[in-house]
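Figure 2 data, in text form.
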Amino acid sequence: MLNTRKISAATFSLTIVLLIGLLFAPLAQGQEEKSYLIGHDSLYMGDEWMKVTDKAIHLYGLEQGWNVITQNAHFKVADQVKQLRYFLEKGVDGVIWSPVSESATADVAEYLAEHGVPTVTYNTDVKTDAVPITIMFGNKEAAKIVAQEAIDYLKEKQGEPEGVVLSIQGDPANTTDRARADGFKEVFSQYEGIEFVEFFTKSDMAEAQRKAFNAIQQYGRPVAIVSQNTTNSRGGVNALRQADMLVPRGEEGHVFISSIGGAPAYLDMMKEGLVDRGYVQPNLFYGPLAMHFLVQVIEEGEESLPEVGTVITEDDLKITGGSYEGVSPWETQVWAPAEVTTNFGHKWLKVQGMLVTPENADDPRIWGNTAEEWLR
Protein backbone atom coordinates (compact mmCIF):
# COMPACT_ATOMS: atom_id res chain seq x y z
CA MET A 1 0.00 0.00 0.00
CA LEU A 2 1.33 3.43 -0.87
CA ASN A 3 2.27 5.84 1.92
CA THR A 4 0.03 8.77 0.95
CA ARG A 5 1.33 10.91 3.80
CA LYS A 6 4.88 10.74 2.47
CA ILE A 7 3.73 11.46 -1.09
CA SER A 8 1.74 14.49 0.04
CA ALA A 9 4.67 15.84 2.01
CA ALA A 10 7.00 15.39 -0.94
CA THR A 11 4.51 17.04 -3.27
CA PHE A 12 4.13 19.98 -0.86
CA SER A 13 7.91 20.42 -0.62
CA LEU A 14 8.27 20.34 -4.41
CA THR A 15 5.49 22.91 -4.78
CA ILE A 16 7.24 25.25 -2.35
CA VAL A 17 10.52 24.89 -4.24
CA LEU A 18 8.78 25.63 -7.54
CA LEU A 19 7.02 28.67 -6.06
CA ILE A 20 10.26 30.05 -4.65
CA GLY A 21 11.92 29.52 -8.04
CA LEU A 22 9.11 31.34 -9.83
CA LEU A 23 9.20 34.22 -7.37
CA PHE A 24 12.94 34.73 -7.45
CA ALA A 25 13.66 33.94 -11.13
CA PRO A 26 12.54 37.40 -12.32
CA LEU A 27 14.65 38.98 -9.57
CA ALA A 28 17.74 37.05 -10.63
CA GLN A 29 17.09 37.89 -14.25
CA GLY A 30 16.65 41.56 -13.30
CA GLN A 31 19.97 41.50 -11.53
CA GLU A 32 21.69 40.15 -14.64
CA GLU A 33 20.06 42.73 -16.91
CA LYS A 34 19.87 45.66 -14.52
CA SER A 35 18.95 48.93 -16.12
CA TYR A 36 20.84 52.09 -15.24
CA LEU A 37 20.04 55.76 -15.64
CA ILE A 38 23.16 57.42 -17.04
CA GLY A 39 23.74 61.13 -17.52
CA HIS A 40 25.75 62.28 -20.53
CA ASP A 41 27.09 65.82 -20.49
CA SER A 42 28.36 66.79 -23.92
CA LEU A 43 31.12 69.37 -24.33
CA TYR A 44 28.96 70.98 -27.03
CA MET A 45 26.64 69.80 -29.80
CA GLY A 46 27.56 72.30 -32.50
CA ASP A 47 29.20 69.97 -35.02
CA GLU A 48 28.83 66.54 -36.57
CA TRP A 49 31.55 65.01 -34.37
CA MET A 50 29.65 65.56 -31.15
CA LYS A 51 26.30 64.68 -32.70
CA VAL A 52 27.40 61.23 -33.88
CA THR A 53 29.27 60.71 -30.59
CA ASP A 54 26.05 61.35 -28.68
CA LYS A 55 23.98 59.19 -31.03
CA ALA A 56 26.40 56.28 -30.58
CA ILE A 57 26.06 56.69 -26.81
CA HIS A 58 22.27 56.46 -26.94
CA LEU A 59 22.30 53.53 -29.35
CA TYR A 60 24.74 51.59 -27.19
CA GLY A 61 22.66 52.42 -24.13
CA LEU A 62 19.63 50.89 -25.83
CA GLU A 63 21.69 47.79 -26.67
CA GLN A 64 22.42 47.34 -22.95
CA GLY A 65 19.01 48.29 -21.64
CA TRP A 66 20.33 51.52 -20.06
CA ASN A 67 18.57 54.87 -20.16
CA VAL A 68 20.70 57.89 -21.15
CA ILE A 69 19.95 61.58 -20.62
CA THR A 70 22.07 64.06 -22.61
CA GLN A 71 22.73 67.67 -21.68
CA ASN A 72 24.67 70.18 -23.83
CA ALA A 73 27.27 72.28 -21.98
CA HIS A 74 27.75 74.69 -24.92
CA PHE A 75 31.46 75.02 -24.03
CA LYS A 76 30.36 76.86 -20.84
CA VAL A 77 31.64 75.88 -17.41
CA ALA A 78 28.61 77.33 -15.62
CA ASP A 79 26.24 75.30 -17.79
CA GLN A 80 28.19 72.10 -17.25
CA VAL A 81 28.31 72.52 -13.48
CA LYS A 82 24.57 73.17 -13.41
CA GLN A 83 23.87 70.15 -15.60
CA LEU A 84 26.01 67.78 -13.54
CA ARG A 85 24.19 68.90 -10.40
CA TYR A 86 20.89 68.34 -12.25
CA PHE A 87 21.95 64.76 -12.97
CA LEU A 88 22.52 64.23 -9.25
CA GLU A 89 19.07 65.62 -8.43
CA LYS A 90 17.57 63.45 -11.18
CA GLY A 91 18.93 60.36 -9.42
CA VAL A 92 21.26 59.07 -12.12
CA ASP A 93 23.41 56.06 -11.32
CA GLY A 94 26.47 57.65 -12.95
CA VAL A 95 27.65 60.22 -15.49
CA ILE A 96 29.86 60.20 -18.57
CA TRP A 97 31.05 63.60 -19.73
CA SER A 98 33.53 65.66 -21.71
CA PRO A 99 34.75 68.43 -19.37
CA VAL A 100 34.70 72.01 -20.64
CA SER A 101 37.59 72.95 -18.36
CA GLU A 102 40.18 70.69 -16.76
CA SER A 103 40.30 72.90 -13.66
CA ALA A 104 36.99 74.72 -13.29
CA THR A 105 34.90 71.53 -13.34
CA ALA A 106 36.97 69.63 -10.78
CA ASP A 107 34.84 70.72 -7.82
CA VAL A 108 31.58 69.47 -9.30
CA ALA A 109 33.17 66.10 -10.18
CA GLU A 110 34.25 65.79 -6.54
CA TYR A 111 30.78 66.88 -5.39
CA LEU A 112 29.13 64.09 -7.35
CA ALA A 113 31.65 61.54 -6.09
CA GLU A 114 31.00 62.61 -2.50
CA HIS A 115 27.30 61.97 -3.10
CA GLY A 116 27.90 58.48 -4.47
CA VAL A 117 27.59 59.26 -8.18
CA PRO A 118 30.67 58.11 -10.14
CA THR A 119 31.67 59.91 -13.32
CA VAL A 120 33.86 58.84 -16.24
CA THR A 121 35.29 61.37 -18.69
CA TYR A 122 36.01 61.00 -22.40
CA ASN A 123 37.56 63.20 -25.11
CA THR A 124 38.65 65.82 -22.54
CA ASP A 125 39.59 65.40 -18.90
CA VAL A 126 39.48 67.06 -15.49
CA LYS A 127 42.14 67.59 -12.82
CA THR A 128 40.88 65.39 -9.99
CA ASP A 129 41.21 61.84 -8.76
CA ALA A 130 37.44 61.84 -8.13
CA VAL A 131 37.15 60.54 -11.70
CA PRO A 132 38.25 56.86 -11.72
CA ILE A 133 39.14 56.66 -15.44
CA THR A 134 39.09 58.69 -18.66
CA ILE A 135 38.80 57.52 -22.28
CA MET A 136 40.94 59.51 -24.75
CA PHE A 137 43.47 59.12 -27.48
CA GLY A 138 46.91 60.75 -27.23
CA ASN A 139 46.57 64.27 -28.64
CA LYS A 140 50.28 64.97 -28.86
CA GLU A 141 50.95 61.59 -30.43
CA ALA A 142 48.19 62.20 -32.99
CA ALA A 143 49.72 65.53 -33.98
CA LYS A 144 53.12 63.91 -34.39
CA ILE A 145 51.64 61.28 -36.72
CA VAL A 146 49.94 63.98 -38.79
CA ALA A 147 53.18 66.01 -38.93
CA GLN A 148 55.25 62.98 -39.90
CA GLU A 149 52.94 62.35 -42.85
CA ALA A 150 53.82 65.82 -44.12
CA ILE A 151 57.54 65.20 -43.55
CA ASP A 152 57.38 61.90 -45.43
CA TYR A 153 55.69 63.64 -48.35
CA LEU A 154 58.31 66.40 -48.43
CA LYS A 155 61.13 63.85 -48.28
CA GLU A 156 59.61 62.05 -51.25
CA LYS A 157 59.20 65.27 -53.24
CA GLN A 158 62.35 67.15 -52.19
CA GLY A 159 64.77 64.68 -50.70
CA GLU A 160 65.23 66.84 -47.60
CA PRO A 161 62.22 68.67 -46.12
CA GLU A 162 62.41 72.43 -46.54
CA GLY A 163 60.11 75.37 -47.01
CA VAL A 164 57.34 77.15 -45.13
CA VAL A 165 54.98 75.03 -43.01
CA LEU A 166 51.88 76.71 -41.61
CA SER A 167 50.64 75.25 -38.33
CA ILE A 168 47.05 76.38 -37.74
CA GLN A 169 46.09 75.69 -34.13
CA GLY A 170 43.10 76.17 -31.84
CA ASP A 171 43.17 77.81 -28.40
CA PRO A 172 46.44 78.06 -26.44
CA ALA A 173 44.44 78.11 -23.21
CA ASN A 174 43.05 74.64 -23.94
CA THR A 175 45.12 71.64 -22.81
CA THR A 176 44.11 69.49 -25.78
CA ASP A 177 44.94 72.24 -28.27
CA ARG A 178 48.29 72.90 -26.61
CA ALA A 179 49.19 69.21 -26.70
CA ARG A 180 48.43 69.06 -30.42
CA ALA A 181 50.36 72.25 -31.14
CA ASP A 182 53.35 70.87 -29.21
CA GLY A 183 53.23 67.63 -31.19
CA PHE A 184 53.44 69.48 -34.50
CA LYS A 185 56.24 71.72 -33.27
CA GLU A 186 58.25 68.78 -31.91
CA VAL A 187 58.37 67.10 -35.33
CA PHE A 188 59.01 70.10 -37.58
CA SER A 189 61.62 71.66 -35.28
CA GLN A 190 63.94 68.75 -36.11
CA TYR A 191 64.46 70.04 -39.66
CA GLU A 192 66.61 73.10 -40.27
CA GLY A 193 65.16 73.66 -43.72
CA ILE A 194 61.62 74.04 -42.39
CA GLU A 195 60.37 77.56 -41.63
CA PHE A 196 57.70 76.78 -39.07
CA VAL A 197 54.93 79.38 -38.76
CA GLU A 198 52.43 78.74 -35.95
CA PHE A 199 49.31 80.71 -35.11
CA PHE A 200 46.11 80.17 -33.10
CA THR A 201 42.55 80.80 -34.26
CA LYS A 202 40.29 79.36 -31.52
CA SER A 203 39.11 77.07 -34.31
CA ASP A 204 37.22 79.80 -36.13
CA MET A 205 37.33 79.04 -39.87
CA ALA A 206 37.18 82.69 -40.94
CA GLU A 207 40.00 83.55 -38.52
CA ALA A 208 42.02 80.59 -39.80
CA GLN A 209 41.59 81.81 -43.37
CA ARG A 210 42.53 85.38 -42.48
CA LYS A 211 45.67 84.44 -40.57
CA ALA A 212 46.76 81.81 -43.10
CA PHE A 213 46.32 84.29 -45.97
CA ASN A 214 48.37 86.90 -44.11
CA ALA A 215 51.09 84.30 -43.47
CA ILE A 216 51.15 83.41 -47.17
CA GLN A 217 51.54 87.06 -48.06
CA GLN A 218 54.42 87.40 -45.61
CA TYR A 219 56.27 84.10 -46.08
CA GLY A 220 55.21 82.97 -49.56
CA ARG A 221 53.72 79.72 -50.78
CA PRO A 222 53.84 77.05 -48.05
CA VAL A 223 54.93 73.51 -48.79
CA ALA A 224 52.55 72.12 -46.19
CA ILE A 225 49.73 73.11 -43.86
CA VAL A 226 49.00 71.16 -40.67
CA SER A 227 46.16 71.84 -38.31
CA GLN A 228 44.66 70.95 -34.98
CA ASN A 229 41.28 70.16 -36.55
CA THR A 230 39.61 70.17 -39.93
CA THR A 231 37.84 73.48 -39.30
CA ASN A 232 41.26 75.12 -39.23
CA SER A 233 42.51 73.15 -42.22
CA ARG A 234 39.50 74.19 -44.27
CA GLY A 235 40.35 77.78 -43.39
CA GLY A 236 43.83 77.08 -44.73
CA VAL A 237 42.38 75.70 -47.97
CA ASN A 238 40.26 78.84 -48.34
CA ALA A 239 43.38 80.96 -47.84
CA LEU A 240 45.21 79.08 -50.59
CA ARG A 241 42.21 79.56 -52.87
CA GLN A 242 42.15 83.28 -52.02
CA ALA A 243 45.87 83.52 -52.86
CA ASP A 244 45.32 81.57 -56.12
CA MET A 245 47.61 78.80 -54.81
CA LEU A 246 45.13 75.93 -54.44
CA VAL A 247 46.49 73.11 -56.62
CA PRO A 248 45.11 69.53 -56.61
CA ARG A 249 47.19 66.61 -55.41
CA GLY A 250 49.55 65.27 -58.07
CA GLU A 251 50.03 68.62 -59.80
CA GLU A 252 53.04 70.92 -59.53
CA GLY A 253 52.71 73.38 -56.66
CA HIS A 254 50.35 71.23 -54.56
CA VAL A 255 50.47 72.17 -50.87
CA PHE A 256 50.33 69.06 -48.67
CA ILE A 257 47.53 69.45 -46.11
CA SER A 258 47.37 67.18 -43.08
CA SER A 259 44.99 67.56 -40.14
CA ILE A 260 43.63 65.87 -37.06
CA GLY A 261 40.01 65.04 -37.80
CA GLY A 262 37.81 63.59 -40.50
CA ALA A 263 34.66 65.70 -40.90
CA PRO A 264 32.40 64.98 -43.90
CA ALA A 265 33.39 68.21 -45.70
CA TYR A 266 37.07 67.41 -45.16
CA LEU A 267 36.63 63.90 -46.54
CA ASP A 268 34.96 65.41 -49.62
CA MET A 269 37.96 67.71 -50.08
CA MET A 270 40.29 64.72 -49.78
CA LYS A 271 38.39 62.92 -52.52
CA GLU A 272 38.72 66.07 -54.66
CA GLY A 273 42.49 65.99 -54.16
CA LEU A 274 42.67 69.22 -52.16
CA VAL A 275 43.76 67.75 -48.80
CA ASP A 276 45.92 64.73 -48.08
CA ARG A 277 45.71 63.24 -44.58
CA GLY A 278 43.41 63.12 -41.60
CA TYR A 279 43.62 61.40 -38.23
CA VAL A 280 40.42 60.52 -36.41
CA GLN A 281 39.54 59.65 -32.86
CA PRO A 282 37.46 56.50 -32.29
CA ASN A 283 34.62 58.69 -31.03
CA LEU A 284 31.91 56.12 -31.81
CA PHE A 285 33.57 54.02 -29.08
CA TYR A 286 34.18 56.84 -26.58
CA GLY A 287 30.74 56.72 -24.99
CA PRO A 288 30.33 52.92 -25.02
CA LEU A 289 33.76 52.46 -23.43
CA ALA A 290 33.03 55.17 -20.85
CA MET A 291 29.69 53.55 -19.98
CA HIS A 292 31.29 50.10 -19.79
CA PHE A 293 33.76 51.27 -17.17
CA LEU A 294 31.16 53.43 -15.41
CA VAL A 295 28.91 50.40 -14.88
CA GLN A 296 31.94 48.35 -13.83
CA VAL A 297 32.70 50.95 -11.14
CA ILE A 298 29.03 50.98 -10.02
CA GLU A 299 28.86 47.20 -9.76
CA GLU A 300 32.36 46.23 -8.68
CA GLY A 301 34.07 49.38 -7.41
CA GLU A 302 37.09 51.33 -8.65
CA GLU A 303 39.46 48.62 -7.53
CA SER A 304 38.09 46.40 -10.33
CA LEU A 305 39.45 48.70 -13.06
CA PRO A 306 42.48 47.44 -15.02
CA GLU A 307 45.87 48.22 -13.51
CA VAL A 308 48.15 50.96 -14.84
CA GLY A 309 50.53 49.45 -17.39
CA THR A 310 47.97 46.96 -18.65
CA VAL A 311 47.35 46.82 -22.39
CA ILE A 312 43.69 46.16 -23.19
CA THR A 313 43.03 44.35 -26.46
CA GLU A 314 39.77 43.41 -28.17
CA ASP A 315 40.24 39.92 -26.72
CA ASP A 316 39.89 41.51 -23.27
CA LEU A 317 37.06 43.92 -24.10
CA LYS A 318 34.85 44.09 -27.15
CA ILE A 319 32.14 46.67 -27.73
CA THR A 320 29.43 45.02 -29.81
CA GLY A 321 26.06 45.96 -31.21
CA GLY A 322 23.81 46.04 -34.23
CA SER A 323 23.58 48.10 -37.41
CA TYR A 324 21.79 51.43 -37.55
CA GLU A 325 20.84 53.24 -40.75
CA GLY A 326 23.35 51.22 -42.70
CA VAL A 327 26.18 51.67 -40.18
CA SER A 328 27.66 49.00 -37.90
CA PRO A 329 29.56 51.39 -35.60
CA TRP A 330 31.26 48.79 -33.38
CA GLU A 331 32.02 46.05 -35.88
CA THR A 332 35.78 46.74 -35.89
CA GLN A 333 37.47 47.62 -32.59
CA VAL A 334 39.53 50.51 -33.98
CA TRP A 335 40.18 51.84 -30.45
CA ALA A 336 42.32 48.81 -29.49
CA PRO A 337 44.90 48.00 -28.31
CA ALA A 338 44.84 50.61 -25.57
CA GLU A 339 47.31 51.09 -22.72
CA VAL A 340 46.09 51.97 -19.24
CA THR A 341 48.18 54.91 -18.08
CA THR A 342 47.47 57.93 -15.85
CA ASN A 343 46.25 61.50 -16.28
CA PHE A 344 45.54 64.08 -13.58
CA GLY A 345 45.91 61.46 -10.85
CA HIS A 346 43.48 58.91 -12.27
CA LYS A 347 43.54 56.14 -14.84
CA TRP A 348 43.50 56.81 -18.57
CA LEU A 349 42.55 54.28 -21.23
CA LYS A 350 44.73 55.62 -24.03
CA VAL A 351 42.94 54.46 -27.15
CA GLN A 352 44.16 54.30 -30.74
CA GLY A 353 43.27 56.73 -33.53
CA MET A 354 43.00 56.01 -37.25
CA LEU A 355 44.97 57.57 -40.13
CA VAL A 356 42.78 58.76 -43.01
CA THR A 357 44.25 58.73 -46.53
CA PRO A 358 42.81 59.12 -50.03
CA GLU A 359 42.85 55.32 -50.26
CA ASN A 360 40.61 54.71 -47.22
CA ALA A 361 38.55 57.92 -47.20
CA ASP A 362 35.34 55.94 -47.82
CA ASP A 363 35.94 53.59 -44.88
CA PRO A 364 32.75 53.39 -42.77
CA ARG A 365 34.84 53.28 -39.57
CA ILE A 366 35.68 56.96 -40.09
CA TRP A 367 33.16 58.97 -38.11
CA GLY A 368 32.67 61.49 -40.93
CA ASN A 369 31.24 58.75 -43.12
CA THR A 370 28.95 57.68 -40.31
CA ALA A 371 27.77 61.28 -40.01
CA GLU A 372 26.80 61.25 -43.67
CA GLU A 373 24.35 58.43 -42.89
CA TRP A 374 23.17 59.37 -39.42
CA LEU A 375 22.73 63.13 -39.87
CA ARG A 376 20.94 63.25 -43.20
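Caption note: Residues 201 and 248 are 25 Å apart (CA to CA).
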